[in-house]
Write a structure and sequence with these properties.
By secondary structure, the protein is an alpha+beta fold. The chain has helices at 7-12, 38-50, 61-72, 84-100, 110-123, 128-132, 135-143, 161-170, 207-210, 212-232, 237-256, 267-270, 276-282, 288-296, 314-328, 333-349, 355-369, 377-401, 406-424, 433-445, 459-465, 476-493, 541-557, 579-597, 612-635, 649-659, 667-676, 682-690, 694-699, and strands spanning 81-83, 178-185, 188-198, 273-275, 308-311, 447-451, 514-516, 521-525, 600-601, 604-605, 663-665. It has two domains: 1-72 and 404-453 and 508-717, Collagenase (Catalytic Domain) (3-Layer(aba) Sandwich), CATH 3.40.390.10; 135-353, Neutral endopeptidase, domain 2. The protein has 29 helices and eleven strands. The strands form four sheets. Strands 2-3-5-4 form a four-stranded mixed β-sheet. A hairpin with a 2-residue loop joins strand 9 (600-601) and strand 10 (604-605). Belongs to the peptidase M13 family.
């Protein structure tokens, strides 16, 4: 959100030597035709205070638009990233705190009571969590056969890998060695299928294990974290260190056979359908029929060797089987595997244990993020509640603050952005006519969901979504297990049910948006339909189009990026482009890969290949939104200029776009983003996108030699 600076801030950030294209002038006198309404003064003040007027926009538009914001917004204590997204999320959290803390708000909704009970169990005002210490996790580990590091009764003779994996995955919903779920069948999006993927690493990327520099810092911190948790659970420090070493060595071997993210962008190559009996031949370290029966028997679904599954990375499962069999051949093999499974289980639940466990985790958080992530308990509890009971929480949020009139205005903006995207298709000379018509047809079939699902306003329908779930105020750890188990059962039941296009994959409170290829659907939650992204009462429509309009265009363009283009209008994985057009697309995609790979932050080079889809979406979204805004101007009149902001409305469009990406972060957080995030860092989401825009350079009158107007520009959509 824009910082709420007073008009004084406008004077503080007056002109400072900026001359090219446009300039800032501040006056205390009324100017004819200038909007002096309170909302205009507030917005103008926020825009100006976020800017750095000493910088030429044609040299570095990110610094021009965000330099003041970065200076005024140092990282808060405990935070590794601070941004407009984060500020808006904190405001949403405060709204929810006021609702949940207010005992005078009675509710007849079972779902809303579940959310409040979970929130209170997380707050733990009676210090129940601390009093329990490691008892809850000790009891769970005993069910898994014990953990050699703790005092949970590990017996190497009776321990069985099959049973431990089945219990961890299919009773307690913990991902050990691999991940699996029931998901839409990418080649027949109307049905669901069991899908397996690589997984099971503690660190967020294989590179943290394999890169020597990263390994020295983060792997050392990981070992310290495991050791400290072991000590908290009753082990002596030397024994805990030894076992931590064996766990990390196993994860290192797993990292070596894990497919890098930039090699996972070909959707067709990832789709490997086979029968469970074929999976058994591929990876025989467990009995797969028995494994799946241990889960699906709980929902009365039959599984046989002929049941179909999709394995996303067959090479990982094949090599994982070799690793596990090699370890089992050693005298200490069972201990190593049991320690790994125990560790993954403990690590996934550390946040639900006593404060001493969470403090141990901060050693790793500091190494990874440059900050320990500590924040007020109530904020963490709002986030946790949103993660597990987001729809119930959203019901209260929407009722409290969401403006119903925002929804139709946003829906109209989506239509305008979509029309602008389609109107540009005839000008793409790299596409053949048949593919162009199919692309238009796919764009026509993109459905949108805005704000929130209607059923959350219907108490009975909302309550039905949480049928069978139970919460108890004094049982935060057990509440987390109950939710995990309930969600696992809910997911498994999908196997015999058709795919539902109206299901939300994100809490409506989230400050985010998304596109789902298998549904050909774009979603814009209520959480992001607020300033600075969107406000139906903004005193300049250019700000709405520059911020939220670009987000809408971004998600729409995902339907046509390097992965989304592989899905047809019904959401099925299918080749609907001809080979010549595919080749032309790939040539243009390489331009983006090369461009973004040339950008560096703190000596980290952006991976232009793994960020390709997001970079395409940023560029296509900006273009579609700008054209949509120009289309809106043809039949509408803009508001009067904002006071003190000597920018045209078209220039203001680009400032609105850039200022939603104002952020600051630690070097460690930047490094992690470069390694694991499919998005480019915020600075280059602005610079990379705008330097490809001919309209931007014309709007700001950038010379051909200026950094923001390079001779080579990348464009697909």
């Amino acid at each position: 959100m824009f910082s709420s600076a007073a008009l004084l801030a406008v004077f503080l950030f007056g002109p400072n030597g900026f001359t090219r294209g446009t300039h800032m002038t501040i006056s205390t006198h009324a100017v004819p035709g200038v909007c002096l309404a309170p909302e205009c003064i507030t917005v103008a003040s926020a825009i100006l205070s976020a800017m750095n007027h000493k910088v030429d926009p044609c040299d570095d538009f990110y610094e021009f638009a965000c330099g003041g914001w970065v200076k005024q917004n140092p990282l808060p204590d405990g935070k590794s990233i601070w941004s407009t997204f984060g500020k808006l999320w904190q405001e949403n959290q405060l709204v929810m705190k006021n609702i949940l803390d207010d005992d005078t708000r009675p509710t007849n909704s079972v779902a809303e009571r579940l959310a409040k009970t979970y929130y209170l169990s997380c707050l733990d005002q009676n210090s129940t969590i601390e009093a329990l210490g490691s008892t809850p996790i000790d009891e769970l580990l005993s069910q898994l056969g014990g953990w050699n590091i703790s005092s949970s009764g590990f017996n190497v003779t009776s321990w069985k890998l099959q049973s431990a994996i089945e219990l961890a995955q299919n009773t307690y919903s913990r991902s050990v060695f691999f991940a699996w779920m029931v998901a839409p069948d990418e080649r027949n999006s109307s049905r669901h299928i069991i899908t397996l993927d690589q997984g099971g690493l503690t660190l967020p990327s294989r590179d943290y294990y394999l890169n020597k520099t990263d390994r020295e810092k983060t792997v050392t911190a990981l070992k310290q974290y495991i050791t400290q948790v072991g000590v908290l659970m009753g082990s002596n420090e030397e024994e805990a260190k030894t076992q931590a070493e064996s766990i990390v060595n196993l994860e290192l071997r797993m990292a070596e056979v894990t497919m890098p993210e930039d090699e996972r962008r070909d959707e067709k190559a990832l789709y490997n359908k086979m029968r469970i009996m074929d999976l058994q031949r591929l990876a025989s370290f467990i009995d797969w029929v028995s494994f799946f029966r241990s889960g699906f028997s709980l929902v009365n679904i039959s599984v046989t060797g002929r049941t179909e599954v999709v394995v996303l990375v067959p090479s990982y499962f094949r090599q994982l089987s070799v690793i596990i069999k090699d370890i089992l051949a050693k005298p200490t093999g069972k201990i190593t595997l049991a320690n790994y499974i125990g560790w993954q289980t403990v690590n996934s639940l550390v946040g639900a244990l006593a404060p001493s466990f969470r403090e141990a985790q901060r050693v790793l958080q500091r190494a990874l993020m440059g900050a320990d992530g500590a924040e007020a308990t109530w904020r963490q509890c709002i986030s946790d509640t949103n993660n597990v009971l987001g729809l119930a929480l959203s019901s209260m949020f929407v009722r409290e603050v969401f403006d119903e009139q925002s929804k139709p205005v946003a829906e109209q903006m989506v239509r305008e952005v979509k029309n602008a995207f389609k109107e540009n298709l005839p000008y793409l000379n790299w596409m053949d006519d048949e593919t162009r018509e199919l692309a238009k047809d796919k764009a026509d079939h993109v459905t949108d969901m805005i704000g929130f699902p209607s059923f959350i306003s219907d108490r009975d329908k909302l309550d039905a979504k949480f049928e069978g779930l139970e919460m108890r105020e004094a049982e935060y750890f057990d509440n987390n297990l109950r939710i995990s188990q309930w969600m696992l059962l809910k997911n498994m039941r999908r196997l015999q049910r058709p795919s539902q296009r109206g299901e939300w994959d994100m809490s409506p409170i989230q400050v985010n948006a998304y596109y789902t290829p298998s549904k050909n659907q774009i979603v814009f939650p209520a959480g992001i339909l607020q300033a600075p992204f969107y406000d139906k009462n903004y005193p300049s429509r250019s700000l709405n189009f520059g911020a939220m309009g670009v987000v809408m265009g971004h998600e729409l363009t995902h339907a046509f990026d390097d992965q989304g283009r592989e899905y047809d209008k019904e959401g099925n994985l299918k080749q609907w482009w001809n080979n010549r057009t595919i080749e032309a697309f790939q040539q243009r995609a390489k331009c983006f890969i090369d461009q973004y790979s040339s950008y560096k932050l703190n000596n980290d080079s952006i991976n232009g290949k793994s960020t390709l889809g997001e970079n395409m979406a940023d560029n296509g979204g900006l273009k579609a939104a700008f054209h949509a805004y120009r289309g809106w101007l043809q039949s509408n009149t803009e508001f009067a200029p904002l006071p003190g902001v000597n920018l045209t409305h078209e220039q203001l469009f680009y400032v609105g776009f850039a200022q939603v990406w104002c952020s600051t972060e630690t070097p460690e957080a930047t490094h992690m983003q470069v390694l694991v995030d499919a998005h480019s860092p915020a600075k280059y989401r602005v610079i990379g996108t705008l330097s490809n825009s001919v309209e931007f350079s014309k709007t700001y009158k950038c010379k051909p030699t200026s950094p923001m107007n390079p001779p080579r520009k990348c464009e697909v959509w």
